[in-house]
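Private note to self, pasted from the team thread so I don't lose it. Backbone tokens:
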């Protein structure tokens, strides 16, 4: 029996809905249902009596809910106390980021934060979207930098760091685009290069196709640098951080992307738990806003 499963079960009971609990826990409804079923199978008891639209707790379910909620509270106290103990020795900041969102501006924000807060123990970790959310909800990251996929639960804060047009890098060997822009529909026959390691490819593919509505072939690069090289080699197109890109020219074009005549936009956010009292969260947020020109 995993603590994560208990948290999912308590969330389902608290919200009275598998759908709302899934949004609160940043996972799919099918995934949270499967976790509850796995928990029941492991314990050998039925926790919920289900019908088509609602459920009621069994005696075992009531017991697990009462004691499980108390256990989660104690775990949170233990975690907060541990974090405060470290903070008393100079402070810390654990930042998770989505590789596809990282560029020189995020690098600059990290470097400036460390320069201004030399005594802070800073850790920066890359991950896929679902992995980052799990890090945040599980207390393994103070904040994460990524796109927004789900409605943010009330327990979490978000700060829009950057909103701007979407650009791509594409080899000049691909004809067309005479007007200096690319319509998303016209790119369906050109492979799209995403950055993801082998274990996260299916998750990232689903995410980005939903976000951008791109239905063409998708190929993967392990790092942003590899994606740039693949685009230069004519293997497909990859996303550029801006219209003024160091890879533009010499056979590579950087083009704005449109859909139905309207230019696509991307939005980068920082997310953190509202009850996280780490002062370094606000400090890094302010620096990131300046690095991305939002202030």
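Design output:
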């Amino acid at each position: 029996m995993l603590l994560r499963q208990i948290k999912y079960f308590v969330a389902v009971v608290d919200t009275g809905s598998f759908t709302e609990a899934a949004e609160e826990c940043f996972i799919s409804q099918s995934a949270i249902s499967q976790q509850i079923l796995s928990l029941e199978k492991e314990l050998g008891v039925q926790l919920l009596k289900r019908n088509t639209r609602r459920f009621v707790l069994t005696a075992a379910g009531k017991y697990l809910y009462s004691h499980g909620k108390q256990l989660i509270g104690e775990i949170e106290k233990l975690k907060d106390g541990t974090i405060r103990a470290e903070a008393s020795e100079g402070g810390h900041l654990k930042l998770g980021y989505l590789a596809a969102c990282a560029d020189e501006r995020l690098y600059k924000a990290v470097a400036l934060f460390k320069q201004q807060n030399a005594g802070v123990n800073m850790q920066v970790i890359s991950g896929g979207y679902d992995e980052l959310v799990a890090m945040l909800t599980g207390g393994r990251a103070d904040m994460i930098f990524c796109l927004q996929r789900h409605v943010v639960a009330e327990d979490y804060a978000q700060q829009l760091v950057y909103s701007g047009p979407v650009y791509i890098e594409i080899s000049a060997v691909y004809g067309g685009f005479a007007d200096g822009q690319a319509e998303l529909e016209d790119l369906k026959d050109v492979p799209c290069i995403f950055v993801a390691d082998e274990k996260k490819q299916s998750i990232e593919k689903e995410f980005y196709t939903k976000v951008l509505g791109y239905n063409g072939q998708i190929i993967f690069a392990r790092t942003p640098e590899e994606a740039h090289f693949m685009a230069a080699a004519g293997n497909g197109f990859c996303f550029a951080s801006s219209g003024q890109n160091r890879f533009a020219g010499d056979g590579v074009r950087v083009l704005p992307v449109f859909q139905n005549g309207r230019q696509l936009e991307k939005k980068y956010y920082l997310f953190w738990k509202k009850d996280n009292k780490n002062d370094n969260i606000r400090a890094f947020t302010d620096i990131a806003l300046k690095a991305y020109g939002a202030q």
